[in-house]
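Entry: Aromatic amino acid hydroxylase
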Amino acid sequence: MTPTERTIARLPAHLRRYVVAQDYAAYTPRDQAVWRHILGQLRGHLGDKAHPVYLEGLEATGIGAEAIPSLDEMNEKLSKLGWSCVAVRGFIPPAVFTELQALGVLAIAADIRTHEHIQYTPAPDIVHESAGHAPIIANRRYAEYLKAVGRVGFKAIASVEDQAVFEAIRNLSVVKEDPTASDEEIAHAQARLEAANASHRYISESTRASRLYWWTAEYGLIGDLERPRIYGAGLLSSIGEAKHCLTSQVKKLPLGVACADTDYDITRMQPQLFVARDFEHLFEVLAEFEATLSWKRGGDLGLNEALRARTVNHLVLADGREVTGKVVKLLPAVKDVAPGLSTSLARLEGPILTSRNGHSEDKPFSGAALVAFGEGTLPERGSFRLALDSGLVLEGFAVGGGEVIALSGTLAGRALALPSMARLYLTERLPSVAGGPADPAAWDRWFGELDAFTVGDGEAQARERKAQALHPSLAELYTEVRRIRESGQLAPERLEQIARASSDFPSDWLLRAEVAELRGEVPPRLSVAHA
């Protein structure tokens, strides 16, 4: 079993199905030339501008400059740092990305950008995910931060609009990377993203968490405010951004929790960046941000966040039980039930899954769930009447397993419209309300097929068209240049012939750059890397 296969085998099934094979043989000689060009430019430029661990980290994580990295080789190196990596295809759902990261697994997009997008790619690619994220992991403290910020993003509550934005971003990236996409298709994809962004009713916890991640792990600077260094993966993997970010055109701000309230635009270079004092500073900001989230605060704040999100989340009760479902209605109490909790009853829409410590106790319940707040005991079986200090009175018949029938109730003497059958939970407090199901693996087993992530037909076809867009004659020229480079036999006459033949493809500057370097007309781009 290869190192990558061992990594995949350790993943739970609900994460494993997002993984794809790297298929190293599918990378073309032009793909390899794209990698060489970017890594040569980046290593030459970033030697004295990136965090000091950057160049050392490239070696420590198995990332060379001459060829696209093999994930097997990366996993051999990463394992020594307590990390691993898997290949994925393009954008994956945020909850999957953050859960993988919390587990210490880098999700690396298997594709590589086209030479048309060599300065900056609209889609995740192997340059960004490997040469951007992996090197700084060589710093132990930063590696711990990546896991911690991944866990926070995983726990944050996302809204239905967040899902619409994710789908629109993924669609736009696919369309922009499709060489056959028309101007109309690109405009439509852009308009779809704008409409999805405009649909937001509020800024969710998940959106704020993604902003914190963006301004630190993706676009973070570190050190002295006047002379910072680069550590963010988005800056380390983009030639244009790496050259632009340290200029006076970009405003440098001290990193603080306010960055979570600062929006960003993925389609343009950022007008401002945040500078961390050091890697310990990242933990200070993360802790301050984390303290504002529902999974840390629970109570009314968490219930209201889950209510307006309209998504599947889970409530953690005082006895440790976790109730997964969609919060659809809240009833206020006559008096506070507990500090930070003035709700008498929360209604959740099914399916409902009960778990403890992230492990489900039984199969999902298809009906509604009611969580009543206050002191009381629900009998396992038989008739019951509960009168809670919140002013809530519930009556019905318990049939076992928390399920009740013939349910009726009043709040401060007013009759309530309650489901005739439901699953009923009692709790004195609500310590936490967190994003997504408490047991993602069980939820996926029961419902994964309904919302399974697959590479859609449009995305698969776009990848195929991208591969076919390279003219066969141009592909052969790249193949020969790659062969000459690897053999070490320069063949001046043949290089002259290739240079002349390249004039048939005037827009393909990369081939001419490769030939010019081999002919000694320009300095090797990788000379700095070997200094």
